[in-house]
Amino acid sequence: MAAGMEVHEIQHSMKRRTSWHDYSRKGTYMLTLVVRERMPLLGTLKGCLEGEVTPYVEYSELGSAIVQEEQKKINRYYPQVEVWKLCVMPDHLHMIVRINEDMGEGKHLGKVVAGFKSGCNNAFWRLFNIHETPRHGLFEDGYCDKILMHDGQLDNWKRYLDDNPRRLMTKRQNPAFFTVLADMEVAGERCKVVGNRFLLDIPDKVAVIVHRRYTDDELARLRGEWLLCGERGGVLVSAAISQKEKVILREAMSRGYSIILLRENGFPKLYKPSGEAFNACAKGLLLQISPWDFHYEKRVITRAQCLHLNAMAERIAAGK
């Protein structure tokens, strides 16, 4: 302020690059590019979840041009870079790319993505007969990248890309279960919720809270009671803070029991659950609740927050 600079809050973004990483060196990345205003210009979702045809995306002419022409230009212009897998959805695309060797001075992943975007823009303008260069291109500014860091991550990425059409079809067939409600009263508080909110109406609920003072025998008895509640159609309510609570909730989810999960963090824009939580949400077996707003920081939950969420779990289980 003394220097005359404008002071404002940090604008967090999933598109911000990782500051400590050198994007010109060898590495593997999953990239996400989103069509401007989420317009479904790249294709149409086909098939169904319960029929013989597995959900898939039928490419538009523009989507086909990206698959057959534009992605191949990446390796042509940057021989150090390979496209390992591409998933084109109606309004966005995911791409797993590998930089096989250091790219050298002035070259990095951002330049690769910019070149790919430029080629897609040219295809877009050509196919839509846009003769004057518009102010904006096909994709939103920036992109999201994930860096391959540990074993098993690449296989998870590949499964995620392969499963994208089914996930989109699931969301379209169950829109209420994937919509964030930003101001719902739960246990006397204004909360953000995602999932089957009617789980709150089921009278048979138990709060899964593991205290340090519990002996092994006490925990074994309580675990049996909690899982029995799920078996008879009741709901397990928990913040899943401790490792023992997490183990019990994972077992309940694997058995197909109904769960209300309390979260320290809220829900970002366009939030959707992942993995087993996605499938549980689609079946109406999961409700996620947070009394607080979403944040990007990796925070350690405080004792006060733990007590707050556990108290909410007890009130929810008691029907208050």
Oligomer: single chain
Residue-averaged pLDDT: 90
Low-confidence stretches: 7-12
**Spatial gap, N to C terminus:** 48 Å
Radius of gyration: 23 Å
Q: In what order do the strands lie side by side in the largest sheet?
A: 7-8-12-11-10-9
**Strand-and-helix sequence, N→C?**
EEEHEEHEHEEEHEHEHEH
Instruction: Please give the largest β-sheet.
Output: 6 strands, mixed
Residues in helices, as a percent range:
25-40%
Tally the helices: what do you get?
A: 7
Instruction: Label the overall shape.
Output: elongated
Label the structural class: alpha/beta
Total count of strands: 12
Question: How much of the residues is beta strand, in percent?
Answer: 15-25%
What are the main properties of this structure?
320 residues, alpha/beta, 6-stranded mixed sheet, 4-stranded antiparallel sheet, 12 strands
Describe this structure in words.
With 320 residues, the protein is α/β, with parallel strands linked by helices. Helix content is 34%, strand content 21%. It is built from 7 helices and 12 strands. It has helices at 61-77, 109-127, 153-173, 216-231, 243-254, 275-282, 303-317, and strands at 27-34, 43-46, 56-59, 81-88, 92-99, 144-147, 181-186, 189-195, 205-207, 235-238, 258-262, 286-290. The protein has a 6-stranded mixed sheet with strand order 7-8-12-11-10-9, sandwiched between helices. The chain has a 4-stranded antiparallel sheet with strand order 4-5-1-6, sandwiched between helices. A hairpin with a 2-residue loop joins strand 7 and strand 8. The longest helix is centred in the middle third of the chain and has 21 residues, at 153-173. It is elongated, with a radius of gyration of 23 Å.
